[in-house]
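BUG-548 | component: ligand-complex export | severity: low

The export step for calcium ion jobs runs without errors, but we want the raw record kept on the ticket for reference. Input record follows.
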Amino acid sequence: MEKAWWQQSTIYQIYPRSFNDTNGDGIGDLQGIIEKLDYLQLLGIDIIWLSPVYQSPNDDNGYDISNYYDIMDDFGTMEDMERLIEEAKKRDIHIMMDLVINHTSDEHPWFMESRKSKDNPYRDYYIWRESQDGPPSDIQSVFSGFAWERDEQSGEYYFHLFSKKQPDLNLHNPEVREHLYNMMNFWLSKGVSGFRMDVIDLIGKEIDEKVLTNGPKLHEYLQEMNERVLSQYPTVTVGETPSATPETAQLYTGKGRNELDMVFTFQHMSLDERAGEGKWALKELDFVELKKVLSTWQTSLFQKGWNSLYWNNHDQPRIVSRWGDDQEYRVESAKMLATVLHMMQGTPFIYQGEEIGMTNIDWDNISRYRDIETINYFHEKRSEGVPEKEIIQSIRAKGRDNARTPFQWNDEAHAGFTNSVPWIEVNENYPEINALQAMENQDSIFYHYQKLIALRKRLDILIYGEYELLLEDHPEIMAYTRKWEGQTLLVVANFYGGNPDFHLPEGLDEAHGEMIISNYSDTREKPSGIGRLRPYEAVVYILNDREE
Ligand code: GLC
Ligand code: CA
């Protein structure tokens, strides 16, 4: 079987604004990333996904692009970018750019032209509608309020699914697509290795029919993009697809479809919200459902497509606070969550700070938050009369700033992120939780991630093995096998802080095997019957075939 280069890779996401500041303006920058490449090399990752570094007025921290061909002033220059690509390459690290083509900034020259008049040649680059009495339709923005903004100049409304400073491009215009393909080729020819595609399931939308995701032309456009751009280079691509199901994922990633390499599912991320009410409607995690969702993705894409594997990114709260225990068992639960994820089939993503077990923040006052989604949500709910306390509770659990506080490098001022005032406050737990501390401790979360990354390179079973869920209905244990060429990999993890009882299925219960990783340093080799697990304990074995 042919192995694609990115199948045994691990991808590390950097949110540049919060990673490392080298010029003392309180904002992370490209030089700051270059400075930490050795750290990333030690961790063992293969690809860096850079959240947007293009020119932007930062209404949504770079996801509002005003020039695709230049670097944001806060982050540095094109020379810095070229240096980053070159220095990463020296360490066998690829760079994956964030590709934001569902919308631009309203300060992009195309939009500035487009809004000038109804007959401007750029008018049709965006989505404009006439309406006499209020917004043309009731479609809501992801960032609160209507997805329509009335523009004074022509009296028409433009469509923006995100902030009003992020007007949606009209991808049905072939000229727009042409520009975007040229831009992608520009970056690939500079030496980047691929793209993470922002909300790519939206690009075929038909506004008048109120079809947003999975529009009729979506796959046609992706195939065109593949032909015109992606197939010309040895790229790696991942689509951000909030709407994807195991079925549609096969359309994006299926062999012979010539679209993308993988997509991000959101199904597992929605299991701690009340169905249909959106991310802020808190509910306890449905753990049995979590196992089911992850397993369905594993089995549906087996030998058909390819999975991405993630717990974290710049839009999600920190996983150790969310589904682990960020207090007493922070280290154990962070390692358990990593183990369960990295032993599955797919390409794992690590979000900056996850590898040292960074946690959520617990800020009560809205003035400390910086994220536009959070701030808009707060004001919208306040105006509806929802008590502040209730809103803040959701924001503490789900707000995107949880992931965006500065990287904690050491226990010096501002966690070593900057020598001036950071653009967003540092999590106050940095004296205990930081990279320096992690590097000096052989039992740290950091070294556990390092081992997981190395195992993926060493064991083909992790790439090819067929997945099977065990103990489906067990309320505390996550267990599964991967089978490949007469070998069985067995993963058993306690997802909670108790000492649950469980019995592995016959055959597995008394097989003997080699333990390849665990999250308690004193776990001894033991028959895979395993007995009780300690809080958040996770163990992985390679079992020998019984006949042998
Ligand atoms: C994606 C990004 C998010 C951004 C949004 C609009 O969901 O991950 O950070 O706000 O798209 O670009
Ligand atoms: Ca800086």
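Assignee comment: Attached the raw record above. Residues 174-189 form the longest helix (16 residues).
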